[in-house]
Amino acid sequence: MNTDPILLEIVEGTLASVEREVETAIARTARSPMIRDAHDFRAGIHDRRLRKLTGRSYSALVHPVARDFPPEKMRPGDVFFHNDVYLSEGGIGHLPDLCVTVPVFHEGEVVAFVQAFGHHDDIGGAVPGSMPSHARSAFEEGLMVPPIRLWDQGVPNEAALRIMTRNSRMPDSLAGDLDAECSACLMGARRLAELFARYGRAAVEGCFDAIIDKTTETFRRELLSKIPDGTHVWEDYAEHDGVDPPRLHAQRITLTVDKAAEVPLIIDFTGTSPQAKGPINHAGDYADGVFLKKWLAPVLRNLADTPERAAELDVNEGVVPLIEMRFPEKGTLLTPIFPAPTNARTFVILRLLGVLAGVLAKATGGRMPADQETIRYTGVYGEDDRGPYLMREVLGGGSGGRHYADGEDTIHVVPDSRNIPAEFAEARWPFVVERLGLATDSGGPGAYRGGLGYDKRLRMLRDAGYMSIADRSILSCWGVNGGRAGRPFRVDIDGEEMEGLVDDHPVRVGQVIRIRTTGGGGWGDPFDRDPDRVAADVRDGKVSPEGARDDYGVVLATGASGPVADGEATAELRERLRAARGPAPFFDRGPGYPLLSGGRTSADVDDPGR
Protein backbone atom coordinates (compact mmCIF):
# COMPACT_ATOMS: atom_id res chain seq x y z
CA MET A 1 0.00 0.00 0.00
CA ASN A 2 1.34 3.41 -0.98
CA THR A 3 1.26 5.82 1.94
CA ASP A 4 0.53 9.50 1.45
CA PRO A 5 3.75 11.19 2.65
CA ILE A 6 1.86 14.18 4.01
CA LEU A 7 -0.50 11.97 5.99
CA LEU A 8 2.50 10.00 7.23
CA GLU A 9 4.01 13.20 8.63
CA ILE A 10 0.69 14.05 10.28
CA VAL A 11 0.36 10.62 11.89
CA GLU A 12 3.98 10.59 13.09
CA GLY A 13 3.57 14.05 14.58
CA THR A 14 0.28 13.12 16.22
CA LEU A 15 1.77 10.04 17.84
CA ALA A 16 4.68 12.06 19.23
CA SER A 17 2.30 14.78 20.42
CA VAL A 18 -0.03 12.33 22.15
CA GLU A 19 2.87 10.59 23.85
CA ARG A 20 4.18 13.92 25.11
CA GLU A 21 0.72 15.06 26.20
CA VAL A 22 0.18 11.86 28.21
CA GLU A 23 3.53 12.28 29.96
CA THR A 24 2.88 15.97 30.64
CA ALA A 25 -0.52 15.19 32.16
CA ILE A 26 0.99 12.54 34.43
CA ALA A 27 3.78 14.87 35.57
CA ARG A 28 1.30 17.62 36.41
CA THR A 29 -1.20 15.50 38.33
CA ALA A 30 0.79 12.71 40.01
CA ARG A 31 1.44 12.78 43.75
CA SER A 32 4.71 10.99 44.42
CA PRO A 33 8.08 12.74 44.08
CA MET A 34 9.42 9.78 42.09
CA ILE A 35 6.82 10.34 39.36
CA ARG A 36 6.03 14.04 39.63
CA ASP A 37 9.48 15.47 40.34
CA ALA A 38 12.04 12.84 39.30
CA HIS A 39 9.99 11.86 36.20
CA ASP A 40 10.91 8.18 36.47
CA PHE A 41 8.12 7.10 34.12
CA ARG A 42 7.36 6.97 30.43
CA ALA A 43 4.47 6.52 28.00
CA GLY A 44 4.21 4.48 24.83
CA ILE A 45 1.77 4.00 21.97
CA HIS A 46 1.24 0.57 20.42
CA ASP A 47 -0.87 -0.63 17.51
CA ARG A 48 -3.44 -3.43 17.62
CA ARG A 49 -0.67 -5.88 16.66
CA LEU A 50 1.10 -4.89 19.92
CA ARG A 51 3.91 -3.10 18.04
CA LYS A 52 5.45 -0.05 19.65
CA LEU A 53 5.02 2.95 17.37
CA THR A 54 6.75 5.71 19.28
CA GLY A 55 10.48 5.79 19.82
CA ARG A 56 11.47 8.58 22.19
CA SER A 57 11.76 6.19 25.13
CA TYR A 58 11.50 2.53 25.95
CA SER A 59 8.23 1.26 27.39
CA ALA A 60 6.60 -1.87 28.78
CA LEU A 61 4.64 -4.33 26.62
CA VAL A 62 0.97 -4.79 25.78
CA HIS A 63 1.51 -8.53 25.26
CA PRO A 64 0.51 -9.67 28.79
CA VAL A 65 -2.72 -7.64 28.70
CA ALA A 66 -3.73 -9.00 25.29
CA ARG A 67 -2.80 -12.51 26.46
CA ASP A 68 -5.17 -12.41 29.42
CA PHE A 69 -7.86 -10.10 27.99
CA PRO A 70 -8.52 -10.69 24.28
CA PRO A 71 -9.07 -7.34 22.51
CA GLU A 72 -12.49 -8.43 21.24
CA LYS A 73 -13.63 -8.51 24.89
CA MET A 74 -12.32 -5.04 25.72
CA ARG A 75 -14.70 -2.08 25.95
CA PRO A 76 -14.30 1.73 25.78
CA GLY A 77 -13.33 3.09 29.19
CA ASP A 78 -11.45 -0.06 30.18
CA VAL A 79 -8.11 0.38 31.92
CA PHE A 80 -5.80 -2.56 32.53
CA PHE A 81 -3.10 -2.77 35.17
CA HIS A 82 -0.19 -5.07 36.00
CA ASN A 83 3.20 -5.14 37.72
CA ASP A 84 3.89 -8.89 37.99
CA VAL A 85 7.43 -9.40 36.69
CA TYR A 86 7.00 -13.04 35.70
CA LEU A 87 3.60 -12.50 34.05
CA SER A 88 4.62 -9.36 32.13
CA GLU A 89 6.29 -11.11 29.16
CA GLY A 90 9.53 -9.36 30.09
CA GLY A 91 8.14 -5.82 30.06
CA ILE A 92 8.25 -5.22 33.83
CA GLY A 93 11.56 -5.58 35.64
CA HIS A 94 10.60 -5.10 39.29
CA LEU A 95 7.42 -4.68 41.29
CA PRO A 96 7.58 -0.88 41.88
CA ASP A 97 7.15 -0.44 38.11
CA LEU A 98 3.37 -0.17 37.76
CA CYS A 99 1.87 -0.36 34.27
CA VAL A 100 -1.43 1.06 33.00
CA THR A 101 -2.79 0.13 29.54
CA VAL A 102 -5.81 1.67 27.78
CA PRO A 103 -7.24 0.35 24.48
CA VAL A 104 -8.14 2.76 21.67
CA PHE A 105 -11.40 2.12 19.83
CA HIS A 106 -12.63 2.93 16.34
CA GLU A 107 -16.07 1.82 15.21
CA GLY A 108 -16.29 -0.59 18.13
CA GLU A 109 -12.95 -2.35 17.61
CA VAL A 110 -9.58 -2.03 19.31
CA VAL A 111 -7.13 -0.30 16.96
CA ALA A 112 -4.30 0.75 19.30
CA PHE A 113 -3.16 1.01 22.91
CA VAL A 114 -1.85 3.82 25.11
CA GLN A 115 0.36 2.73 27.95
CA ALA A 116 2.24 4.32 30.85
CA PHE A 117 4.52 2.74 33.38
CA GLY A 118 6.76 4.16 36.02
CA HIS A 119 8.62 3.61 39.25
CA HIS A 120 6.34 4.26 42.23
CA ASP A 121 7.18 4.97 45.84
CA ASP A 122 6.01 1.80 47.52
CA ILE A 123 3.98 -1.31 46.69
CA GLY A 124 4.60 -3.15 49.96
CA GLY A 125 7.25 -5.73 50.74
CA ALA A 126 9.94 -6.04 53.37
CA VAL A 127 11.33 -2.49 53.29
CA PRO A 128 10.10 1.02 52.47
CA GLY A 129 10.33 1.54 48.72
CA SER A 130 9.72 -2.15 47.90
CA MET A 131 13.34 -2.80 46.95
CA PRO A 132 14.81 -5.00 49.71
CA SER A 133 18.47 -5.29 48.79
CA HIS A 134 18.88 -8.64 50.57
CA ALA A 135 15.72 -10.26 49.23
CA ARG A 136 15.87 -13.96 48.41
CA SER A 137 12.35 -14.25 47.01
CA ALA A 138 9.90 -12.16 44.98
CA PHE A 139 7.46 -12.55 47.85
CA GLU A 140 9.63 -10.19 49.92
CA GLU A 141 9.50 -7.46 47.28
CA GLY A 142 5.90 -6.34 47.41
CA LEU A 143 2.43 -6.92 46.02
CA MET A 144 2.40 -8.84 42.71
CA VAL A 145 -0.56 -8.00 40.46
CA PRO A 146 -1.07 -9.95 37.23
CA PRO A 147 -2.97 -8.18 34.43
CA ILE A 148 -6.36 -7.06 35.77
CA ARG A 149 -9.15 -4.81 34.54
CA LEU A 150 -8.64 -1.86 36.88
CA TRP A 151 -11.41 0.24 35.29
CA ASP A 152 -14.42 -1.43 33.67
CA GLN A 153 -16.03 0.80 31.02
CA GLY A 154 -15.07 3.92 32.93
CA VAL A 155 -15.84 2.61 36.43
CA PRO A 156 -12.81 2.10 38.71
CA ASN A 157 -12.45 -1.22 40.51
CA GLU A 158 -12.49 0.18 44.03
CA ALA A 159 -11.81 -3.19 45.63
CA ALA A 160 -8.59 -3.68 43.66
CA LEU A 161 -7.49 -0.10 44.35
CA ARG A 162 -8.15 -0.57 48.04
CA ILE A 163 -6.06 -3.76 48.11
CA MET A 164 -3.13 -2.01 46.42
CA THR A 165 -3.20 1.09 48.59
CA ARG A 166 -3.61 -1.02 51.73
CA ASN A 167 -0.34 -2.77 50.87
CA SER A 168 1.55 0.50 50.33
CA ARG A 169 3.33 2.55 52.98
CA MET A 170 2.46 5.61 50.87
CA PRO A 171 -1.21 4.95 50.06
CA ASP A 172 -2.15 8.52 49.15
CA SER A 173 0.75 8.88 46.74
CA LEU A 174 -0.01 5.53 45.14
CA ALA A 175 -3.70 6.33 44.71
CA GLY A 176 -2.90 9.75 43.26
CA ASP A 177 -0.33 8.38 40.85
CA LEU A 178 -2.62 5.64 39.58
CA ASP A 179 -5.45 8.12 39.07
CA ALA A 180 -3.09 10.41 37.16
CA GLU A 181 -1.83 7.61 34.93
CA CYS A 182 -5.26 6.15 34.21
CA SER A 183 -6.74 9.55 33.38
CA ALA A 184 -3.77 10.53 31.20
CA CYS A 185 -3.91 7.28 29.19
CA LEU A 186 -7.68 7.61 28.73
CA MET A 187 -7.08 11.13 27.42
CA GLY A 188 -4.41 9.80 25.06
CA ALA A 189 -6.82 7.12 23.82
CA ARG A 190 -9.38 9.81 22.98
CA ARG A 191 -6.77 11.75 21.02
CA LEU A 192 -5.83 8.68 18.99
CA ALA A 193 -9.47 7.81 18.36
CA GLU A 194 -9.87 11.27 16.84
CA LEU A 195 -6.98 10.49 14.47
CA PHE A 196 -8.72 7.33 13.25
CA ALA A 197 -12.06 9.13 12.93
CA ARG A 198 -10.51 11.88 10.82
CA TYR A 199 -8.46 9.80 8.37
CA GLY A 200 -9.92 6.31 8.54
CA ARG A 201 -8.55 3.07 9.88
CA ALA A 202 -6.96 1.79 6.67
CA ALA A 203 -5.01 5.01 6.07
CA VAL A 204 -3.82 5.36 9.65
CA GLU A 205 -2.78 1.72 9.96
CA GLY A 206 -0.95 2.05 6.64
CA CYS A 207 1.02 4.88 8.22
CA PHE A 208 1.77 2.67 11.24
CA ASP A 209 3.26 0.06 8.91
CA ALA A 210 5.28 2.72 7.11
CA ILE A 211 6.66 4.13 10.39
CA ILE A 212 7.88 0.72 11.50
CA ASP A 213 9.21 -0.26 8.07
CA LYS A 214 11.15 2.99 7.87
CA THR A 215 12.91 2.25 11.15
CA THR A 216 13.82 -1.25 9.99
CA GLU A 217 15.28 0.02 6.73
CA THR A 218 17.09 2.97 8.35
CA PHE A 219 18.79 0.81 10.96
CA ARG A 220 19.76 -1.77 8.35
CA ARG A 221 21.13 0.79 5.89
CA GLU A 222 22.71 3.42 8.13
CA LEU A 223 23.83 1.51 11.22
CA LEU A 224 24.25 -2.19 10.59
CA SER A 225 26.24 -1.43 7.45
CA LYS A 226 28.96 -0.06 9.75
CA ILE A 227 29.52 -3.42 11.49
CA PRO A 228 31.76 -5.94 9.71
CA ASP A 229 30.38 -9.44 9.32
CA GLY A 230 31.73 -11.89 11.86
CA THR A 231 31.40 -13.07 15.44
CA HIS A 232 32.63 -11.25 18.54
CA VAL A 233 32.38 -11.99 22.27
CA TRP A 234 32.52 -9.76 25.33
CA GLU A 235 31.26 -9.76 28.88
CA ASP A 236 30.90 -7.50 31.87
CA TYR A 237 29.81 -8.01 35.44
CA ALA A 238 27.58 -7.08 38.32
CA GLU A 239 29.61 -7.10 41.50
CA HIS A 240 27.22 -8.14 44.27
CA ASP A 241 23.69 -9.45 44.75
CA GLY A 242 22.95 -8.46 48.34
CA VAL A 243 23.19 -12.03 49.65
CA ASP A 244 26.53 -13.60 48.69
CA PRO A 245 29.88 -11.84 49.14
CA PRO A 246 30.87 -9.63 46.17
CA ARG A 247 31.99 -11.59 43.10
CA LEU A 248 31.79 -11.37 39.32
CA HIS A 249 28.27 -12.06 38.06
CA ALA A 250 28.89 -12.28 34.31
CA GLN A 251 26.65 -11.09 31.50
CA ARG A 252 28.06 -12.31 28.19
CA ILE A 253 27.10 -11.48 24.61
CA THR A 254 28.26 -13.35 21.55
CA LEU A 255 27.37 -11.11 18.64
CA THR A 256 27.13 -12.61 15.16
CA VAL A 257 26.72 -10.22 12.23
CA ASP A 258 25.62 -11.37 8.78
CA LYS A 259 24.27 -8.39 6.89
CA ALA A 260 23.06 -10.54 3.99
CA ALA A 261 20.82 -12.60 6.28
CA GLU A 262 17.15 -11.87 6.81
CA VAL A 263 17.94 -11.35 10.52
CA PRO A 264 21.38 -9.71 10.43
CA LEU A 265 22.17 -9.63 14.18
CA ILE A 266 22.23 -12.60 16.52
CA ILE A 267 22.73 -11.79 20.21
CA ASP A 268 23.53 -14.92 22.18
CA PHE A 269 23.61 -14.68 25.98
CA THR A 270 25.18 -18.09 26.55
CA GLY A 271 27.86 -17.78 29.23
CA THR A 272 25.78 -15.52 31.46
CA SER A 273 26.11 -16.48 35.12
CA PRO A 274 23.56 -18.54 37.04
CA GLN A 275 20.70 -16.66 38.63
CA ALA A 276 21.71 -14.87 41.79
CA LYS A 277 20.34 -15.58 45.23
CA GLY A 278 19.72 -11.86 45.66
CA PRO A 279 17.57 -9.46 43.64
CA ILE A 280 19.77 -8.68 40.60
CA ASN A 281 18.01 -11.08 38.21
CA HIS A 282 16.05 -9.92 35.15
CA ALA A 283 13.31 -12.04 33.56
CA GLY A 284 14.21 -11.24 29.96
CA ASP A 285 13.53 -14.51 28.12
CA TYR A 286 9.84 -13.93 27.35
CA ALA A 287 8.09 -13.02 24.08
CA ASP A 288 11.29 -13.88 22.19
CA GLY A 289 13.12 -11.19 24.15
CA VAL A 290 11.17 -8.39 22.47
CA PHE A 291 11.61 -6.03 25.41
CA LEU A 292 15.39 -6.53 25.45
CA LYS A 293 15.59 -6.02 21.69
CA LYS A 294 14.09 -2.56 22.04
CA TRP A 295 16.06 -1.90 25.24
CA LEU A 296 19.42 -2.67 23.61
CA ALA A 297 18.82 -1.24 20.13
CA PRO A 298 19.55 2.40 21.09
CA VAL A 299 23.21 1.39 21.50
CA LEU A 300 23.33 0.93 17.71
CA ARG A 301 22.60 4.62 17.19
CA ASN A 302 26.18 5.37 18.19
CA LEU A 303 27.15 4.09 14.73
CA ALA A 304 25.32 6.93 12.99
CA ASP A 305 27.37 9.29 10.84
CA THR A 306 26.87 12.21 13.22
CA PRO A 307 25.49 12.65 16.74
CA GLU A 308 22.79 14.85 15.26
CA ARG A 309 21.68 11.99 13.03
CA ALA A 310 21.78 9.57 15.96
CA ALA A 311 19.40 11.82 17.89
CA GLU A 312 16.91 11.70 15.02
CA LEU A 313 16.62 7.91 15.01
CA ASP A 314 13.66 6.50 16.91
CA VAL A 315 13.67 3.01 18.37
CA ASN A 316 10.27 1.46 17.77
CA GLU A 317 9.11 -2.02 16.81
CA GLY A 318 11.04 -1.66 13.56
CA VAL A 319 14.23 -2.83 15.28
CA VAL A 320 12.71 -6.17 16.31
CA PRO A 321 12.99 -7.97 12.92
CA LEU A 322 16.71 -7.15 12.79
CA ILE A 323 17.67 -9.01 15.97
CA GLU A 324 17.48 -12.63 17.04
CA MET A 325 18.07 -13.34 20.71
CA ARG A 326 19.32 -16.66 22.00
CA PHE A 327 18.92 -17.26 25.71
CA PRO A 328 20.62 -19.90 27.88
CA GLU A 329 18.59 -22.49 29.72
CA LYS A 330 16.39 -21.44 32.62
CA GLY A 331 18.21 -20.50 35.80
CA THR A 332 20.56 -17.66 34.77
CA LEU A 333 20.62 -13.94 35.53
CA LEU A 334 18.54 -13.38 32.36
CA THR A 335 16.38 -16.50 32.65
CA PRO A 336 15.52 -16.65 36.35
CA ILE A 337 13.00 -19.11 37.73
CA PHE A 338 10.08 -17.75 39.76
CA PRO A 339 10.16 -16.64 42.57
CA ALA A 340 13.75 -15.40 42.15
CA PRO A 341 13.92 -11.77 43.34
CA THR A 342 14.39 -9.03 40.74
CA ASN A 343 14.09 -5.61 42.39
CA ALA A 344 17.73 -4.65 41.58
CA ARG A 345 17.55 -5.94 38.01
CA THR A 346 19.06 -2.66 36.81
CA PHE A 347 22.43 -4.23 37.65
CA VAL A 348 21.84 -6.59 34.74
CA ILE A 349 19.90 -4.61 32.13
CA LEU A 350 22.10 -1.54 32.45
CA ARG A 351 25.18 -3.70 32.23
CA LEU A 352 23.83 -5.31 29.06
CA LEU A 353 23.85 -1.90 27.37
CA GLY A 354 27.56 -1.73 28.12
CA VAL A 355 28.19 -5.31 27.06
CA LEU A 356 26.63 -4.66 23.66
CA ALA A 357 28.64 -1.43 23.37
CA GLY A 358 31.81 -3.33 24.32
CA VAL A 359 31.32 -6.11 21.80
CA LEU A 360 30.53 -3.53 19.12
CA ALA A 361 33.69 -1.64 20.09
CA LYS A 362 35.67 -4.80 19.37
CA ALA A 363 33.87 -5.22 16.05
CA THR A 364 34.32 -1.61 14.90
CA GLY A 365 37.81 -0.74 16.09
CA GLY A 366 36.66 1.23 19.12
CA ARG A 367 33.99 3.41 17.54
CA MET A 368 31.56 2.91 20.44
CA PRO A 369 31.38 5.06 23.61
CA ALA A 370 32.99 3.97 26.84
CA ASP A 371 30.84 2.66 29.68
CA GLN A 372 28.29 4.44 31.86
CA GLU A 373 26.08 3.46 34.80
CA THR A 374 23.28 5.95 35.15
CA ILE A 375 20.80 4.51 37.64
CA ARG A 376 21.20 3.99 41.33
CA TYR A 377 18.67 4.49 44.11
CA THR A 378 19.58 6.28 47.31
CA GLY A 379 17.33 7.66 49.98
CA VAL A 380 16.29 8.11 53.57
CA TYR A 381 13.13 7.25 55.45
CA GLY A 382 11.67 7.74 58.90
CA GLU A 383 9.05 9.85 60.63
CA ASP A 384 8.68 13.58 61.05
CA ASP A 385 5.89 15.79 62.39
CA ARG A 386 3.70 14.84 59.42
CA GLY A 387 4.12 11.09 59.92
CA PRO A 388 6.08 8.48 57.96
CA TYR A 389 8.10 9.70 54.99
CA LEU A 390 10.20 8.17 52.24
CA MET A 391 12.71 10.12 50.14
CA ARG A 392 14.18 8.06 47.36
CA GLU A 393 16.11 9.52 44.47
CA VAL A 394 17.40 8.01 41.23
CA LEU A 395 20.62 9.94 40.71
CA GLY A 396 22.34 9.70 37.35
CA GLY A 397 26.04 9.54 36.58
CA GLY A 398 28.51 10.43 33.86
CA SER A 399 28.22 8.95 30.39
CA GLY A 400 31.17 7.46 28.55
CA GLY A 401 33.60 9.42 26.42
CA ARG A 402 32.99 9.09 22.68
CA HIS A 403 35.27 9.03 19.66
CA TYR A 404 34.32 12.63 18.92
CA ALA A 405 33.47 14.21 22.31
CA ASP A 406 33.64 13.99 26.08
CA GLY A 407 30.90 12.17 27.95
CA GLU A 408 27.96 14.08 29.41
CA ASP A 409 27.78 14.88 33.12
CA THR A 410 25.08 13.54 35.46
CA ILE A 411 22.76 11.98 32.92
CA HIS A 412 19.95 9.46 33.43
CA VAL A 413 18.99 6.64 31.09
CA VAL A 414 15.28 7.54 31.44
CA PRO A 415 14.45 10.55 29.20
CA ASP A 416 13.48 13.73 31.06
CA SER A 417 14.36 12.25 34.45
CA ARG A 418 16.06 14.57 36.90
CA ASN A 419 17.28 14.93 40.44
CA ILE A 420 14.82 16.15 43.05
CA PRO A 421 15.07 19.94 43.47
CA ALA A 422 16.78 20.93 46.70
CA GLU A 423 14.10 23.50 47.51
CA PHE A 424 11.34 20.91 47.29
CA ALA A 425 13.36 18.31 49.20
CA GLU A 426 14.15 20.64 52.10
CA ALA A 427 10.50 21.74 52.35
CA ARG A 428 9.21 18.16 52.45
CA TRP A 429 11.86 16.10 54.28
CA PRO A 430 13.95 16.62 57.43
CA PHE A 431 17.36 17.32 55.92
CA VAL A 432 19.37 20.14 54.37
CA VAL A 433 21.01 19.77 50.95
CA GLU A 434 24.44 21.17 51.74
CA ARG A 435 25.90 20.55 48.29
CA LEU A 436 24.76 19.43 44.86
CA GLY A 437 27.49 19.58 42.26
CA LEU A 438 29.85 17.61 40.07
CA ALA A 439 32.22 15.01 41.52
CA THR A 440 35.71 16.20 40.62
CA ASP A 441 37.92 13.59 38.91
CA SER A 442 35.07 11.09 38.65
CA GLY A 443 35.11 10.96 34.84
CA GLY A 444 37.48 8.42 33.31
CA PRO A 445 40.62 10.02 31.84
CA GLY A 446 40.88 9.85 28.08
CA ALA A 447 41.54 11.76 24.92
CA TYR A 448 37.82 12.32 25.40
CA ARG A 449 37.05 12.37 29.11
CA GLY A 450 34.20 10.46 30.69
CA GLY A 451 31.29 12.50 32.06
CA LEU A 452 31.21 13.37 35.76
CA GLY A 453 28.88 12.03 38.41
CA TYR A 454 27.08 13.86 41.20
CA ASP A 455 28.53 14.99 44.51
CA LYS A 456 25.54 15.43 46.82
CA ARG A 457 25.56 15.99 50.57
CA LEU A 458 22.57 15.76 52.90
CA ARG A 459 22.68 16.84 56.56
CA MET A 460 19.96 15.10 58.57
CA LEU A 461 17.74 17.14 60.88
CA ARG A 462 16.23 14.01 62.45
CA ASP A 463 17.27 10.42 62.96
CA ALA A 464 16.51 8.34 59.86
CA GLY A 465 17.35 5.19 57.96
CA TYR A 466 19.56 5.26 54.86
CA MET A 467 18.96 2.97 51.87
CA SER A 468 20.83 2.29 48.65
CA ILE A 469 20.45 0.06 45.61
CA ALA A 470 23.62 0.67 43.61
CA ASP A 471 26.12 -1.21 41.52
CA ARG A 472 29.57 -0.04 40.39
CA SER A 473 30.66 0.51 43.98
CA ILE A 474 33.65 -1.81 43.44
CA LEU A 475 33.90 -2.14 39.68
CA SER A 476 34.18 0.99 37.55
CA CYS A 477 32.70 2.13 34.26
CA TRP A 478 35.30 0.85 31.81
CA GLY A 479 37.34 2.94 29.43
CA VAL A 480 37.86 1.95 25.80
CA ASN A 481 40.44 2.33 23.05
CA GLY A 482 43.08 3.45 25.53
CA GLY A 483 40.72 5.41 27.78
CA ARG A 484 40.72 4.73 31.50
CA ALA A 485 37.92 3.70 33.82
CA GLY A 486 35.84 6.24 35.72
CA ARG A 487 35.51 6.48 39.49
CA PRO A 488 33.01 4.10 41.14
CA PHE A 489 29.97 4.94 43.24
CA ARG A 490 30.75 6.05 46.79
CA VAL A 491 28.61 6.92 49.81
CA ASP A 492 29.88 7.74 53.25
CA ILE A 493 28.05 8.85 56.38
CA ASP A 494 30.32 11.05 58.47
CA GLY A 495 33.31 9.25 56.96
CA GLU A 496 31.93 5.70 57.32
CA GLU A 497 31.84 4.15 53.84
CA MET A 498 28.64 2.37 52.86
CA GLU A 499 28.21 -0.68 50.65
CA GLY A 500 26.23 -0.38 47.44
CA LEU A 501 23.30 -2.41 48.77
CA VAL A 502 21.87 -1.08 52.04
CA ASP A 503 18.34 -1.31 53.46
CA ASP A 504 18.34 0.39 56.84
CA HIS A 505 21.61 1.92 58.00
CA PRO A 506 20.86 4.33 60.87
CA VAL A 507 21.69 8.01 60.33
CA ARG A 508 21.66 10.29 63.34
CA VAL A 509 20.59 13.90 63.49
CA GLY A 510 23.44 16.16 62.36
CA GLN A 511 25.21 13.49 60.35
CA VAL A 512 26.06 14.12 56.69
CA ILE A 513 25.38 11.62 53.90
CA ARG A 514 27.79 12.22 51.02
CA ILE A 515 26.85 10.59 47.71
CA ARG A 516 29.25 10.51 44.77
CA THR A 517 27.86 8.77 41.71
CA THR A 518 29.80 7.06 38.96
CA GLY A 519 31.87 8.77 36.31
CA GLY A 520 31.77 7.49 32.74
CA GLY A 521 34.74 5.73 31.21
CA GLY A 522 37.24 7.61 29.08
CA TRP A 523 37.75 7.16 25.32
CA GLY A 524 41.25 7.19 23.83
CA ASP A 525 44.65 7.62 25.45
CA PRO A 526 44.52 10.41 28.08
CA PHE A 527 48.07 11.42 27.09
CA ASP A 528 46.60 12.42 23.73
CA ARG A 529 44.15 14.89 25.24
CA ASP A 530 44.81 18.50 24.34
CA PRO A 531 46.69 19.96 27.37
CA ASP A 532 44.70 23.20 27.06
CA ARG A 533 41.47 21.24 27.48
CA VAL A 534 42.87 19.59 30.60
CA ALA A 535 43.78 23.00 32.00
CA ALA A 536 40.26 24.22 31.21
CA ASP A 537 38.83 21.22 33.10
CA VAL A 538 40.97 22.17 36.09
CA ARG A 539 39.72 25.76 35.95
CA ASP A 540 36.13 24.42 35.80
CA GLY A 541 36.67 22.12 38.78
CA LYS A 542 36.09 18.95 36.73
CA VAL A 543 39.67 17.73 37.10
CA SER A 544 41.94 18.40 40.07
CA PRO A 545 45.52 19.67 39.61
CA GLU A 546 46.71 16.27 40.85
CA GLY A 547 44.48 14.53 38.30
CA ALA A 548 45.85 16.71 35.53
CA ARG A 549 49.37 15.64 36.41
CA ASP A 550 48.85 11.98 37.25
CA ASP A 551 46.06 11.02 34.83
CA TYR A 552 46.82 13.27 31.85
CA GLY A 553 50.50 14.06 32.26
CA VAL A 554 49.79 17.79 32.14
CA VAL A 555 52.01 20.20 34.04
CA LEU A 556 50.19 23.35 35.07
CA ALA A 557 51.48 26.87 35.35
CA THR A 558 49.81 29.97 36.74
CA GLY A 559 48.05 32.13 34.17
CA ALA A 560 46.13 35.38 34.39
CA SER A 561 42.76 33.57 34.66
CA GLY A 562 43.92 30.46 36.50
CA PRO A 563 45.91 27.31 35.69
CA VAL A 564 47.27 26.93 32.16
CA ALA A 565 49.23 24.09 30.55
CA ASP A 566 53.03 24.28 30.41
CA GLY A 567 53.56 22.79 26.96
CA GLU A 568 57.26 21.91 27.21
CA ALA A 569 57.05 20.42 30.70
CA THR A 570 53.90 18.51 29.71
CA ALA A 571 55.60 16.91 26.69
CA GLU A 572 58.50 15.75 28.86
CA LEU A 573 56.23 14.34 31.57
CA ARG A 574 54.03 12.52 29.06
CA GLU A 575 57.06 10.92 27.45
CA ARG A 576 58.17 9.54 30.82
CA LEU A 577 54.68 8.37 31.75
CA ARG A 578 54.12 6.61 28.41
CA ALA A 579 57.41 4.78 28.75
CA ALA A 580 56.58 3.64 32.27
CA ARG A 581 53.06 2.54 31.35
CA GLY A 582 53.65 0.84 28.01
CA PRO A 583 50.83 0.40 25.49
CA ALA A 584 47.41 1.47 26.75
CA PRO A 585 44.93 -1.44 27.00
CA PHE A 586 41.93 -1.50 24.68
CA PHE A 587 39.63 -1.91 27.70
CA ASP A 588 40.42 -0.58 31.18
CA ARG A 589 38.19 -2.05 33.87
CA GLY A 590 39.66 -0.01 36.72
CA PRO A 591 41.28 -0.93 40.04
CA GLY A 592 38.24 -2.76 41.42
CA TYR A 593 38.36 -5.56 38.86
CA PRO A 594 41.48 -7.28 40.26
CA LEU A 595 39.81 -7.41 43.69
CA LEU A 596 37.10 -9.71 42.34
CA SER A 597 39.00 -11.53 39.60
CA GLY A 598 41.80 -13.08 41.60
CA GLY A 599 44.28 -10.35 40.71
CA ARG A 600 43.78 -10.31 36.94
CA THR A 601 43.66 -6.84 35.37
CA SER A 602 41.71 -7.91 32.29
CA ALA A 603 39.36 -10.63 31.11
CA ASP A 604 40.18 -13.07 28.33
CA VAL A 605 37.47 -11.49 26.16
CA ASP A 606 39.10 -8.02 26.42
CA ASP A 607 41.60 -8.77 23.64
CA PRO A 608 40.18 -6.88 20.62
CA GLY A 609 41.62 -9.53 18.30
CA ARG A 610 39.55 -12.35 19.83
List keywords for this structure.
610 residues; alpha+beta; six-stranded antiparallel β-sheet; five-stranded antiparallel β-sheet; 14 helices; 22% strand; Oxoprolinase-like
Question: Could you characterize what this model shows?
Answer:
The chain is an alpha+beta fold and 610 residues long. Helix content is 28%, strand content 22%. The protein contains 14 helices and 23 strands. The strands form 6 sheets. It has a 6-stranded antiparallel β-sheet. A 5-stranded antiparallel β-sheet has the order 13-14-20-17-18, with helices on one face. Strands 7-8-9-10 form a 4-stranded mixed β-sheet, covered by helices on one side. β5 (148-152) and β6 form a beta hairpin. α1 crosses α6 (201-223) and α4 (158-166) packs across α5. The longest helix is centred in the N-terminal third of the chain and has 29 residues, at 171-199. The protein is globular. The two termini are 46 Å apart.
* Derived structural class: alpha+beta
Beta-strand percent range: 15-25%
Rg, rounded, reads 24 Å
Number of strands: 23
Distance between the termini: 46 Å
Please state the average pLDDT score. 96
Low-confidence segments:
none
**Main sheet?**
6 strands, antiparallel
- The number of helical segments is 14
Shape: globular
Q: What is the fold's blueprint, element by element?
A:
Elements lengths: L4 H25 L3 H4 L4 E7 L15 H6 L10 E4 L14 E10 L2 E11 L28 E5 L2 E2 L1 H9 L4 H29 L1 H23 L6 E9 L10 E9 L7 E4 L21 H7 L10 H6 L10 E4 L19 H19 L11 E9 L2 E9 L26 H7 L2 E8 L15 E7 L3 E6 L9 E2 L9 E4 L2 E2 L3 E7 L4 E5 L14 H9 L5 H8 L3 E4 L2 E4 L1 H15 L5 E2 L4 H4 L14
Parallel strand pairs: 9-10
Antiparallel strand pairs: 1-4, 2-3, 2-5, 3-4, 5-6, 7-8, 8-9, 11-12, 11-15, 13-14, 14-20, 15-19, 16-23, 17-18, 17-20, 21-22
Helix pairs in contact: 1-5, 1-6, 4-5, 5-6
